[in-house]
NAD-dependent succinate-semialdehyde dehydrogenase
Amino acid sequence: MAAAPLSPALVAHLPTGMLAGGHWGPAAGGRTFEVADPATGQVLFDVADASADDGRRALDSASGAAAAWRAVAPRERSELLRAVYERIVARADAFASLITAECGKPLAEARAEVLYGADFLRWYAEQAVRTDGLVRTAPAGTNRQHVHRRPVGPALLVTPWNFPIAMATRKIGPALAAGCTVVIKPAHATPLTTMLVAEVIRSELADRGLPAGVVNVVPTTSAGDVVGPLLADERLRKLSFTGSTAVGSSLLRQAADQVLNCSMELGGNAPFVVFADADLDAALEGATVAKLRNAGQSCVAANRFLVHDSLAREFARRLADRFARLRVGRGWDDGVDVGPLIDARAVEKVDALVSDATDHGAQVLTGGSAPDGPGSFYTPTVLAGVDAGQRVVREEIFGPVAPVVAFADDDEAIELANDTEYGLAAYAYTTSLDRALRASDEIEAGMIGINRGMVSDASAPFGGVKQSGLGREGGEAGLEEYLETVYVAL
Ligand code: NAD
C-alpha cells in the first residue's frame, strides 16, 4: 500500500520532540507515541509523549520568557508574525501534504486550510500594532481616567485534531500579537502540523534574536495529566481551549480554582435551514460545502438539514444524487472529494447514529455504511424522513451524514433550529430579506451564514453561544482574549 507522499526535505526537518526553551528534545524517560495516517492506518512518525513534568518544563520556559516578550515592541512582534505567515504560505504544499497525511482530508482542502490558518498570522500581525487605550476626564472633573491594555500573561493553548494548522494559528497569532508567551498542547492524533508551525516560529525568533521560550509545545497522550497541573499552576494566566463541550466544561471546572481567564471554543450542532422561498440550487451547493468539509468533522459542519415541507423530498433526493457522485478515498489521490474519518472509533460512532436513525424509521437515500478495506472511511450519507428527536439530530455527528427534517412554517423552523444545547454556527437559505433578518435575529448561534455554506474568516469573530463556548477567535475580538484592561486614575 502506498504511504502518504511526504517530501524528503519535509521529513528531514520535521520536529518530533517537545519544544521548551527554544529546543526540541525528547520527553522525560524518552517516551513516544505513534501518529498514524487515517487513510491507511500506517504509522507516520513516533512523537515525544510529554509527561506532567515535561508540561511544567514548558511552562517554566513560557513563564521565563514572559517579561522579555511583552517588552518587545509591538512592531517587532508584528514583523515576526508577518514573516512566519510568509514562510508558511511559501511552503503551503508541504504543510498541506502533512495535514493530509496525519488528518486525512483531501490535499486541496488541506491547502485551503493552510491559507486560512496562515491568514490568522497575517491578520494578527496587522492587529499587533493597534491595541487601543483610553484617556478621558472623570465625569466629576476631579481627575483623568487612563485605561490601557496589557498582555494577560503565559497562556496554555489546547487544540483539537480536525484543523491542525488553523486551530493552532487562531490562538498563537493573537497570543503573540498581544505579548503573551504560550504552551501549546496539540491533539495527539495530529500534532505534527502544529509542531511544524512552532518550528517556523522558533527559527524566526532565533534569527531575530528574540526570546527563545515564547512558543513551547507538549505533544502527549496523557492530556489530563499534563493539563491538570498546569491549570493549578499560578504562573499560568490564560487557558484557550478548542474541543468538545464535555472536555471544555471539565477544564472550566478545574480552571475555576485559580479563577483562570478562559476562552472556550466547543462543540456545535449547526442547523441548515432551507426556507420555502430558497434558491434550491444554491442551497444544495451550500449544503454540500457546509456538510462535507473535512468529511463532516468540523465544529461548524451542518448537522441538521431543516427543510420546508414543500421542498424536503426534492432537497433530500438531489443532495443524495450529489453525495453519490463524490469520490471517497485517500486525500492525496487525484479527484478525491471526501477523505477518511480520523479513526475506527469515529466510524463506529457515525455508523451507530445512522443505525439508530434507520431503526426509528429514517430512510437511507445514499451511503449508510463504511466501505470494506483499510482506513477509516464512511460513505457520504443522506437520511430522509428523520424525526427531530432522533439522536442523529440531537448529537454532533462529526461525519459525512446529512439528516433531513421537514418543517411546516417559519416559526417551527426557528424553534427546531434553537432546540439544542449548542449554538455555534447556523445556515439559512431564503430569497426574502425579512426571513434573512429574522433568522439572523432569532437563531441562537454565534455565527450565521445567510445563503452561504461557509462562515470562517480570520478577520471575523468566530465562536459560539450556549454550550458552544465562551469568547471569540479571529477579528478584533480575538486579540481581546489575550489582553487585560488596567484603569489608572490620575
Ligand atoms: P476533544 O475535546 O476530545 O479534545 C480536544 C483537546 O483536548 C485535545 O488536545 C485533547 O487531547 C484535549 N483533551 C482531551 N481530554 C482532556 C482532558 N481530560 N484534559 C485536558 N485536555 C484534554 O475534542 P476533539 O475530538 O479533538 O475535537 C472535536 C471536538 O472539537 C468537536 O466537539 C468539535 O465540535 C470541537 N471543535 C470546536 C471548534 C470551535 O471552534 N468551536 C473547532 C474545532 C473543533
In short: Residues 158-162, 167, 185, 187-188, 223-224, 227, 242-244, 247, 251, 265-268, 299, 396, 424, 464, 469 surround nicotinamide-adenine-dinucleotide (CB under 6 Å).
